[in-house]
Amino acid sequence: MKAVIIAAGKGVRLRPITDEIPKCMAELKGKPMMEHVLVNLKKAGIEECHLVVGYKKDVIEEHFGPEFEGMKLNYFVQEEPKGTAHAVSLVEEYIDGKFLITNADVIVGSQNYQALIKTDEFDKADGVLLARKVKDPWRYGVLKTEGQKIIDIIEKPAPGKEPSNLINAGVYRFSKDFFEAIRETQLSERNEYELVDSIKIYMKKGKNMEFRNCIGMCVDVATKADLEEADSILDELFPM
Question: In this predicted model, which residue has the larger pLDDT, 225 or 176?
């Protein structure tokens, strides 16, 4: 199975770290954060990864090269920051079945990738995303659900108006037909093609989107505080 890793971001909120390196190369426990993503994808059984790179892309390619511990790596360049849906669209011709999508700055354990990959469960849904519970859901994309089914994703609702405390963790599993929804995605108010908008189109087409609860660590690294949190959790999981 193949995975798509979105790794084109600048990581403005991680400056000055990202003045010289792309966000996904910021270190956790002495290794680039994307190396932790690759390790866990390999543990989950992923055999090939499409890396969508952009800002300081040469740093990534020079570090990882054409493979990682036997897992083939392919590089696709997003020349301009046009959003997550646009990033995924670059690999369409190289996807031939079900595939995983993850952001390079989302650190989760391999069991979470495995939960999305499990064929028997996934066959009940057209798409699956990883969800996590938070105390401040209004800061994120909040899931409106019925059982395991996703009814809607509401971006940053007003405090007290959120339909649940479950948020989109930024890890997904789709079939090839998801690219049809990506092609229909329009520019957002941020002037980007957003993956969440593609998911909403996918659901309007009658596709069944479900969620799986995150197991164990899940850190979306956006700031230095997030980086420190992820580093601390990894220290607890893998003490020296």
Answer: 176
List C-alpha distances in Å: 151 to 51, 196, 210.
Answer: 30, 13, 9
- Bridge partner list, 129: 172, 211
Q: What integer pLDDT is reported at residue 72 of this predicted model?
A: 97
**Residue 78 exposure: Cα atoms within 13 Å on the Cβ side:** 26
pTM for this model (two decimals): 0.91
Is the separation of the CB atoms in 143 and 163 below 8 Å?
yes
Q: At 237, phi and psi to the nearest 5?
A: -75, -35
Domains and CATH numbers, the chain: 2-237 (3.90.550.10)
Residue 190 tokens, joined:
């941020």
Calculate the CA dihedral of residues 13, 17, 19, 20 and round it to 10 degrees.
Answer: -150
What confidence tens digit (pLDDT) does each residue in 93-147 have? 999 999 999 999 898 988 999 988 875 555 678 999 999 998 888 888 899 999 9
Find the helix or strand (DSSP H, E) in which 121 lies: helix 119-122
Alpha-carbon span 20 to 16, nearest angstrom: 8
